[in-house]
Amino acid sequence: MEEPRIYTVTELTKDIRFVLEDTFHEVWIEGEVSNLTVSAAGHAYFSLKDESSLLNCVLFKSNGIRLGFSAEDGMSVLARGRVSVYDKRGQYQLYVTRMEPRGRGALQVAFEQLKARLQKEGLFNEEHKRPIPFLPARVGVVTSPTGAAIRDILKVSKRRYNNIEITLRPVKVQGEDAAGEIARAIRELNEFNEWIASSGAKEHPVDVMIVGRGGGSLEDLWAFNEEPVARAIYDSDIPVISAVGHQIDFTISDFVADCRAATPSHAAELAVPTKEELSGRIRQLGGILYSAVNGMIDRFQREVLSLRSSYVLRAPMNVFLQMEQRVDELARSAASSIKHLCQMRRARLGAAAGKLEALSPLAVLERGYSITFKGKDVIKKASDLAEGDLIRTVFASGKVASRVEKIEKQTKER
What we know:
Helix content is 44%, strand content 21%. The protein has helices spanning 9-23, 61-64, 106-121, 148-161, 178-199, 227-235, 252-256, 264-271, 275-308, 311-314, 316-359, 361-366, and strands at 27-38, 44-49, 54-59, 76-86, 91-101, 138-143, 165-170, 208-213, 240-244, 259-260, 371-374, 377-378, 390-394, 399-403.
């Protein structure tokens, strides 16, 4: 009797993996994304589930980048991949290589996700929008050199104002490398302006930029929905007009740009003014200026005529003579007032001097009185003296020095 084969766990797991990989090397699975996690390395781990079953899935970063959108919990998807076993856990799972949202296309989902993210960051905010210059000297165009867009832009610009310089920065506008080329071209035109500013070169800087292409499918226009292009437009110091596809096409570039044009031809109309319109406007402003200046000249002429007929200008010496006479009158009046004032002050001064004279001690001495001093002190009473004191007597005229020989006492001194 043949002995039964005994497997190790590793051997059985390995055989099961071979069976699964040979049987389900490429399958499409429809389900709802659940328990989505993304590792630090960028690999996504999730489950696909339906009403009664659940399948573990792995989406490595290299495959995830190519999806064009980010899977989310609850999203209904169609996933393609191979079924295999993760040996360490003995767990079979789907290794996803491609995935599409069900109901909406992957590109549409990617568009909406990027739009929501950039809008949240503020890249679409109106306060970041710069005005398109009124009369640019140079317009930069970032587009295909062989597409219909550049032909339309050149034709419209030449028709409207052929003195404005158009600088084409040729790029691919669709395909895998298109977004990178467009973003690089936008930055190079900004660097060109920086070079002019730093070197002082006698070149016109790029005053406004048109970034776009002609119409096409969503896939054809996709480069203008990619983040590098959106970031380059947002970072541009040169105002950007986005002109992608036709009027019904909206791209991420349209939302970030300073101005959206419905078509490349419309972008040229926004960037380049009509020469005839400018000439007409200049003529209109010239007429307004001519009328204003003429009105001022008429008004000044009337004022000059009015002044010429005035009395001052007709007989200026009469005015001078009258003023001279008036000065004489004022001088006479001033002299009279000063004389009267001096007389009044002199009379008041004389009266005050008389009063002072009457109160003067000299006047008292003139009437026969005298003043006696002992040293510097005035003697007012006999008791202030003693026999033998040397005293000095002042009269109205002259002084006498004497010595006290006798003091007569009185019962009541006065």
